[in-house]
Amino acid sequence: MINRIKENLKGTMMKLGHIEILVEDPKRSQQFYCDVLGFELVTIQHELFFWLKKGQQEFLIRPGRRQEAPSQYENAPVGFVLYTDNVDESLAELKRKGVEIRGIVDSIKCFTFTDPDGNWFQLVNPNDH
Prior knowledge:
The protein is globular. By secondary structure, the chain is α/β, with parallel strands linked by helices. The protein is built from three helices and eight strands, in the order H-E-H-E-E-E-E-H-E-E-E. Strand 2 and strand 3 form a beta hairpin. The protein has a four-stranded mixed beta sheet, with helices on one face. It starts with a helix and ends in a 5-residue tail after the last strand. The chain has two domains: 48 residues, Roll (2,3-Dihydroxybiphenyl 1,2-Dioxygenase, domain 1), CATH 3.10.180; 56 residues, 2,3-Dihydroxybiphenyl 1,2-Dioxygenase, domain 1, CATH 3.10.180.10.
C-alpha cells in the first residue's frame, strides 16, 4: 500500500505553504499576534489582509465569519502550539501583556490561552513535555 501511494505521488511535492487565520477584526488580531506573541509583520494587503511571519512559517490574518469559539482547548478544531525553552518566563511575559491563561492540557506543563477571536494556543517546552 505504501509503495503504491509513493508511486502515485512520484514527481509531486507538497509542503505546507502558509496558515490562514480567519478573524473578526484583522487589525486587532494583527496587533495581538505581533505585540503579544512576537510575530513579524511582513506586509498588509488592501488594509484587511495581514501577512505575518514567526520563524520560517508564514501566516495570513484575514477577515472571516466567526463561529462560536469552543470553551476548552480540547474542543477546538485547531490548536497552535508555541514552543519555549522557559515556560515560567514566557507565561509571565504573556500575563504582563494581558493574556489570560485559560488552563492546562495533557500535562501540568502545557498552558493554554486564546487570541482575541477564541483561537486556541498551547505553550510548552518541547524538552520538558
